């Protein structure tokens, strides 16, 4: 199904209005989008069409019951002008894991991949070539069916929009280890890229920003003793020469950047431990000088180095290293993503 | 502000197409809706306008980050044709509590109340008069501002739609005490009427339905030992002649029906205990015959009696009582709501 994607071209491209040398993140949208509707019990044909407003009944369940999920991906151009994706099928598989938990119909991998490729082909000119820039890709699904009863909808949209983007974060961030709020429950939806997970983070993040931090380090909701995520990213902590990250579970996102970093770090000879890491351990390592690095990992920022953190009214600075793992890992992964280095893993997909 | 609500009347009412004797719940919508937009840092003038689709950019944050909250209310007609609301200001205050947690701007109480009254006046003919029916009222707010960055939006909509409705549930329900999934984290958004809380419940509920139950009894996410909510309702448990309900906290909704029932039950001379109640205690009471009743409480169903529950592969039936508290409490509260009885509490608001 859906192997033939209908293309409805925009009448006049708006690409001339965009300054590709000064791109914000995720705020400028390409000419087209992919739309596929689930109704009458099945996915209808996907269409690439002009980027335009969506019209929904006020009773559409997306407005009331939060049935929405998304993915984040990037497309790059290499020096030869080829379009490159990074592990795109992993995004599709994770979208479907999120979909299962949120009772949204599974999107066939063929629809996802063919739709994505068709969209990127039509909007090829929108893929930035400038160093550090990329085409940010946002696949998302939501309940478009109607009703004020709290139950799954009978109609859904799967869409992909794209946004040529500069880098996500600038500079190192200061983070606050969270002791009161939490982003996910045991047996909840924390592992899914569900819209509601993100809205729930805004208030604690706002409180942290008011205290002078950029982001929150999320801890488990029961004891606040175990470190789980950093803002909307997975987290890595380097103690001496060992890189530690929390194991994934039903509260922690199975990040594609996270698992790529684990693999790359191991192959670079770095000792990686995937295990629970406690706040107590991190504080002790900070005090003894053994805490060398902390960084977030995610598609948007790739790697976001942390300059220091706050905990219980104390601030802890991380050292300025000459050769941090963060920089080495970021260069290694982005070189693979952008075809500046060999890809021994088969992660890079050329369109 | 917003004290003068602009009214844009529908050209032709669709009320003649509606069978008021066979109303589903929340699926038929009245002619008009209230819309108020927050932009440029402030709420713009509210308008009552024809119920019509909402047009949103695909990058609107509602589709991506789950910034959405809602309320549920009902309007009744009494025998004299007066329009009656039940504790409406409490809904407004709770909406604003939800808004704070989801970083949505506070809606002024004046806008909420004046807008609601203006809407109900215009759609007065839509308020059902049939016994058990009501006009279900759905105030909601969501992020209409755009951007693929996970941060609060810069534009929001506050809307009220209404739906003439029959009763929400028919008959007694069988429930399953949840041992794996959870609806709320400590320090999360469980107390708020956030859209994402509801989507997160669909999957566990679906599993329960597949096992032959109607709803899930939610327990705490850490131990699954304490009973928190019943489906999308608060829960009351009667052991001998004592009515027990969980205290509200950051995981449990501060239900308006819940607190009204606590007050009414006390004034009827029923012993009410607001305290944590464990699964162990409920099972023991079921086995000894001391467990007399369980029921959910919420705006839609008012009171939803539970016929029995499942726990760890065992099913427990509740006795058929001649004079259950559930029926007495439901009659008392709905008589107040519909002006069949005096309202010593000042809860009923006549338009």
UniProtKB/TrEMBL annotation, chains A, B:
Class of enzymatic activity (EC top level): transferase
Gene Ontology molecular functions: branched-chain-amino-acid transaminase activity
Annotated pathway: Amino-acid biosynthesis; L-isoleucine biosynthesis; L-isoleucine from 2-oxobutanoate: step 4/4; Amino-acid biosynthesis; L-valine biosynthesis; L-valine from pyruvate: step 4/4; Amino-acid biosynthesis; L-leucine biosynthesis; L-leucine from 3-methyl-2-oxobutanoate: step 4/4
The protein's required cofactors: pyridoxal 5'-phosphate
Keyword Transcription among record annotations: no
Catalytic activity reported: L-isoleucine + 2-oxoglutarate = (S)-3-methyl-2-oxopentanoate + L-glutamate; L-leucine + 2-oxoglutarate = 4-methyl-2-oxopentanoate + L-glutamate; L-valine + 2-oxoglutarate = 3-methyl-2-oxobutanoate + L-glutamate
Pfam families: Aminotran_4 (PF01063)
UniProt entry keywords in alphabetical sequence: Amino-acid biosynthesis, Aminotransferase, Branched-chain amino acid biosynthesis, Pyridoxal phosphate, Transferase
Keyword Ribosomal protein: no
Entries under NCBIfam families matching the protein: ilvE_II (TIGR01123), PRK13357.1 (NF009897)
Family, as annotated: Belongs to the class-IV pyridoxal-phosphate-dependent aminotransferase family.
Functional summary from the UniProt entry: Acts on leucine, isoleucine and valine.
Name of the featured protein: Branched-chain-amino-acid aminotransferase
Lineage of origin: Bacteria, Pseudomonadati, Bacteroidota, Flavobacteriia, Flavobacteriales
